[in-house]
Amino acid sequence: MPDIIHICYPGIGGQAAVATGLALEGSRAGVSHGIIFYGVEPTAEQYLTLCEENNIAHKTIVKKPGVGLGARQALSNAIQGMAPKMVISHHHDTAISAACSGMLKTSKVKPVNVFVEHHSNALKTQKDWVLGALAHRLTDHTVFLTEEYRKIVHARSEFLFKEDRTSVIGNGLELRLYPRRVISDFKYTVIGMQGRMDSGKDFESVIRAFALLSQSADYDFMVKPLRLELIGDGPDRTKLEALVQELKLTELVSFTGFLSHQSLIKKMQTWHAAVLMTEGETLSMAILEAWALQLPVISTRVSGVKELINDHFDGLLVEPGDSEELAKNLTLVLNNNATARRLGMSGRERVEQEFDRRKIWRSYLDLMNKLSTGSDSTPRGKAKKSHQLTSSYSP
């Protein structure tokens, strides 16, 4: 039986990337992990493969849109069957279900419940705010990805917020998978963006900026022809493909769909600049991955990004929806190798210092042992005690 199980959404994205990464890091360190993939789509093949190759116990529960009472019962049964000491839920919905499952008198397994808050504050609906606050109160501890994020939630939910039951632990990357980028004689100058093609990500502004850049006299096309690579999928993809056709950019813009993690890194190693135009973030894995590959990053001056990127030091910021400003900043990094290298190197240093997954795992391990020894109060006013977890390495 795993000591710790993670519950996360099964599709390609931040939740599953973080959950599987922590499970892998913890398992390597000698702490057994399991994962329950829970959501309205099947589990992405790359996550299943990772679990199988590393002997990580896993289960997929596909719920129908809506309340999904049957799926919630299956989730409760899965938790009871795996009998973990700790459950880490990466969404408020599953955090509430997991906490309620442990409160039932019929439940033989009553693990410590931790809620990791991934959802961008800028994108939350009123329902999200209410359910997030409920998850915080019902679980034993809440992890926020940044201090700024925690402050905003505290201000918004002042009377429900219990700061002594919160921690700040960021996301992390396995740095050996991201070798320092070596500039080679690429045939094209490639600009790239990765993400889910929905209302939260502004791929349209990237396409329009690329159209401006492709017509600009400021970029010397005799040096290297431009290409735009868009990685991801989602409900807006058809509309974006139509825009590319309308702007007569079909030969210059490629849509790859979602890629395996290995293929994603391989693609990004051919980029010359990474863009993330977004409506809001918590702690963007896309930015961290671009930094790890020493790419210059251009993103939006919005909540969750402006606190992460130091403008003109480790990235460049533009106003939301401003294609002209984005085109100007792209021209700056593409025409100036020294600027591009400086931004990329500063980003890589940030990742090495702050977002190394081994260090992030150590922070989670310390939190787990704090909770399991009863030094942190639970929502029901009494500590849950269990055995300490030990790790076989230190970062």
TrEMBL record:
Record domain Glycosyl transferase family: where = 187-350
Q: Which GO terms describe its molecular function?
A: glycosyltransferase activity
The record's Pfam families line, in alphabetical order, gives:
Glycos_transf_1
Q: Which CDD domains does this UniProt record tie to the protein?
A: GT4_PimA-like (cd03801)
Region Disordered: start-end pairs:
372-395
Superkingdom of the source? Bacteria
Concerning InterPro entries, the annotation shows: Glyco_trans_1 (IPR001296)
Annotated protein name in UniProt: Glycosyl transferase family 1 domain-containing protein
Origin organism of this chain?
A: Oceaniferula spumae
